[in-house]
Amino acid sequence: MAAILRLLLMALLSTATGHEGKSSSNFPLVVSTWPFLEAVRAGWRAVNGGSSSIDAVVEGCSTCEVLRCDGTVGPGGSPDENSETTIDALIMNGATMEVGAVAGMRYVKNGIKAARLVMLYTQHTMLVGDEASAFAISMGLPGPSNLSSTESMEKWIKWKENQCQPNFRKNVVPKNRCGPYYREKDVNVGEKTCLVEDVAENIRMKSSYVDFHNHDTISMAIFDKYGHIAVGTSTNGASFKIPGRVGDGPIAGSSAYGDDEVGACGATGDGDIMMRFLPCYQVVESMRLGMEPRVAAKDAISRIAKKYPNFVGAIFAVDKNGMHAGACYGWTFQYSVRSPSMDDVEVITVYP
């Protein structure tokens, strides 16, 4: 009788902890926006070598920060209107649903590492601005550092020479071509010394100005060999953004989201639009209700396009079994994958 009870107890324990004890031939798995091959390789080496999915995401996104992927990740890219580069980053644990994020961070180069410090050493979800920088430095990250580069300064100078066009302002009048800017109703006609020739044209240009060279994010999802999920993002935001702007990069559910019970999602594109819809949260919840990744990704993108037909953006979706797919609108999208069945990273192209 005692032996039978022991067997029953062992069976119950096995059922209760089965997710911990089972690995899948589909895992580990690394998925990332864009052909950021070295970042994916770094994340793969870490997770395939036994690191946690959290640590592997940090490795992958940190690699992109060091390499300044597309000039839109890490220091040295995407200057704001004042020529300064700032960092947004996020990390999320799909097992515990903990999130750490930094936004508008100055003087510290390591965005994803700072986000992890927020998750590990505070009860908060996000820190912003100079206080985020001070916290990251107090926790051991190098700084303060100048986040500008020769390339970012040259880019900013050319933009100034082009009379600060295009930009992200609307419904305002510049006193000169590069501001200061005033609401039209607050400016007398006689004071309009240097009007934009066609404000409507300037707004129209904005939608076509967003592309993967000036408005991009690395969004990465990593599954360890047991299927535990972590997601992370890092970006220096939109080029020539209004100082203080925070995009979708550090917003859980927008740029990325992960839940061990369901799967993960990563997004990239016009974050100012996409963050209004929390597309990655939508994708994960759609998969929870039974949608395949392809359908869930397409559904989330179509919801945005219905309201904003000029936006550009893309999503990858991965379910808990490792099935992945992508969807995009306004541009051709590529995402990168590394799994045990692959000899190296593979790039998947998705057409609008």
How does this model look, in words?
This protein has 11 helices and 14 strands. With 352 residues, the chain is α+β, with helices and mostly antiparallel strands. A hairpin with a 7-residue loop joins strand 13 and strand 14. Helix 3 packs antiparallel against helix 4 and helix 10 packs across helix 11. It starts with a helix and ends with a strand. About 10% of the residues have low confidence. Heterotetramer of two alpha and two beta chains arranged as a dimer of alpha/beta heterodimers. This is beta-aspartyl-peptidase. One of its GO terms (biological process) is proteolysis.
Record keyword descriptors for this entry.
352 residues; alpha+beta; eight-stranded mixed beta sheet; four-stranded antiparallel beta sheet; 11 helices; 14 strands; 34% helix; protease
Unreliable runs: 4-22, 192-208
What is the helix content?
A: 25-40%
Q: What is the beta-strand fraction?
A: 15-25%
- Return the structural class: alpha+beta
Number of helices: 11
- Choose one word for the global shape: globular
| Total count of strands | 14
Query: Which sheet architecture does the biggest sheet show?
Result: 8 strands, mixed
**How far apart lie the N and C ends?**
64 Å
Average pLDDT, all residues? 88
> What is the H-and-E element order?
HHEHHEEHEHHEEHEEEEHHHEEEE
**Rg over C-alpha atoms, rounded to the nearest angstrom:** 22 Å
Give, in spatial order, the strands making up the sheet with the most strands. Answer: 4-3-2-8-7-1-13-14
Catalytic activity: Cleavage of a beta-linked Asp residue from the N-terminus of a polypeptide
GO cellular component, one term: cytoplasm
Family: Belongs to the Ntn-hydrolase family.
Subunit structure: Heterotetramer of two alpha and two beta chains arranged as a dimer of alpha/beta heterodimers.
